């Protein structure tokens, strides 16, 4: 094929069948590569394509894609013969040089002296200028579309970044909310444990008080029984009696330290203290018993001394024995120190328990305060979450409105397309009617010509032929 077409002038020298055979061999590549809207202006200026033909190629409703339009264009140009093939090759030289090289095997060198002469130079220049202006308009439109798409892409990217930032903030808020809930639950369990401990301590304290009351009641009943059996005065009466000379009374317990009265006490300490008090009361009873016996003996001695029955030595020995007996009945200093030490230890243990109770109360108050603080933070977080959720709903509504607006625009576009298709259908129908009328006119013209020939043949004399 390239050997047949060495120069542009050789293309014009080729036959119509050879040219269209070259084009038909590469019909598939031509149909896929070229755009009919770029070739029709040149073909129209070359007078191988009419305005109605161009309208039918570009906007015909029968052709749903570019390949079908290009195929119909090739069919129309094939009916134009050799001029259609040359005009198509020259248009490919300008707009699709690679296809031109593929078909002809020549380089697309623009030389005004090598054109086929189908159109004048001025018209060719006008056509080229129009093609260049149309290409520039298409280029500017594509640039505008590119800028619009870039701006839309930037806006969508910004919205995407904002949505991602909002999503990260929401995730952080959810994590913080979960952490606060866990801390609140942990503090709540601690408060429950402290309440259980306080309840247990209060139960121990109430049990200790009951045991103390029972021990006190039992001690009093025992003292009353002892006093009733032996004819001794009761402990209340003993407390009202004056103390014996030489016998020191037990000092009263020191008053408790000032401060809030504790609710909890140790059971063992209360029992030890009650035992100590019971022991002291028993010692008091023994001392009172000894003092009463000493009084009786002193009375007897006074009576005997008055009667003069006993000598002074016996009296002196008797007094010594009584003194030894009283000394044996008194508290030893060691026992007194031990009892005081036990009392001090019990008081210290009691004070430690009181301090522990105060510390537990302070911890419970601090935990309650912290729980209230966490609850307020939780409420604030929930409010912020609800606000963010409301913003999301608003954005969703806006997006839905935008989508509905886009749907309406698409409907309007479809209506415009349908109206355009209807107009194209009407145009195609009018073109079809025009072609039918044109064929009918041609038929009528042929019929008129035949009738004229018949009429002329009838009007001529019989001996004269029509050729003369």
TrEMBL record:
Record-linked Pfam families: CARD
Organism: Camelus dromedarius
Compositional bias of kind Basic and acidic residues: 290-303
Domain CARD: 15-107
Lineage: Eukaryota, Metazoa, Chordata, Craniata, Vertebrata
MF terms in GO: CARD domain binding
Name this polypeptide is given: Caspase recruitment domain-containing protein 14
Signal peptide positions (record): none
Coiled coil (UniProt feature): 132-225
Gene3D superfamilies: Death Domain, Fas
């Amino acid at each position: 094929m390239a050997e047949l077409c060495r120069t542009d002038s050789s293309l014009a020298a080729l036959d119509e069948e050879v040219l269209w055979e070259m084009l038909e061999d590469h019909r598939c590549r031509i149909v896929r590569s070229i755009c009919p809207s770029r070739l029709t202006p040149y073909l129209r200026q070359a007078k191988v394509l009419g305005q109605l033909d161009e309208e039918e190629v570009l906007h015909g409703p029968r052709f749903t894609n570019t390949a079908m339009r290009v195929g119909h264009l090739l069919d129309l140009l094939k009916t134009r013969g050799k001029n259609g093939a040359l005009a198509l090759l020259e248009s490919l030289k300008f707009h699709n040089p690679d296809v031109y090289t593929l078909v002809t095997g020549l380089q697309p060198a623009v030389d005004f002296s090598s054109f086929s002469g189908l159109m004048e130079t001025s018209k060719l220049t006008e056509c080229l200028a129009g093609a260049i202006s149309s290409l520039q308009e298409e280029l500017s439109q594509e640039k505008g579309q590119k800028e619009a798409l870039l701006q839309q892409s930037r806006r969508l990217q910004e919205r995407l970044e904002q949505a991602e930032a909002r999503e990260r903030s929401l995730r952080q808020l959810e994590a913080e909310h979960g952490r606060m809930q866990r801390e609140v639950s942990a503090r709540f369990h601690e408060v429950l444990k402290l309440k259980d401990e306080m309840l247990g301590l209060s139960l121990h304290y109430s049990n200790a008080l009951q045991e103390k009351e029972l021990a006190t009641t039992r001690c009093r009943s025992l003292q009353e029984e002892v006093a009733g059996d032996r004819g001794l005065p009761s402990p209340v009466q003993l407390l009202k009696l004056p103390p014996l000379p030489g016998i020191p009374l037990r000092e009263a317990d020191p008053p408790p330290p000032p401060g809030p009265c504790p609710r909890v006490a140790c059971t063992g300490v209360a029992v030890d203290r009650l035992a100590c008090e019971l022991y002291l009361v028993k010692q008091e009873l023994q001392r009172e018993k000894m003092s009463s016996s000493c009084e009786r003996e002193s009375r007897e001695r006074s009576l005997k001394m008055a009667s003069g029955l006993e000598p002074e030595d016996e009296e002196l020995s008797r007094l010594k024995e009584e003194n030894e007996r009283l000394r044996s009945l008194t508290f030893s200093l060691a026992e007194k120190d031990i009892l005081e030490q036990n009392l001090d230890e019990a008081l210290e243990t009691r004070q430690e328990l009181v301090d522990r109770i105060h510390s537990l109360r302070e911890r419970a108050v601090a935990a309650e305060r912290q729980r209230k603080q966490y609850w307020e933070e939780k409420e604030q977080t929930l409010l912020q979450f609800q606000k963010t959720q409301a913003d999301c709903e608003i954005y969703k509504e806006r997006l839905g409105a935008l989508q509905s607006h886009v749907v309406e625009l698409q409907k309007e576009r479809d209506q415009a397309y349908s109206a355009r298709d209807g107009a194209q259908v009407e145009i195609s129908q009018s073109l079809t009617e025009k072609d039918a009328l044109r064929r009918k006119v041609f038929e009528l013209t042929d019929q008129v010509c035949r009738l004229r020939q018949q009429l002329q043949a009838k009007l001529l004399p019989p001996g004269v032929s029509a050729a003369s």
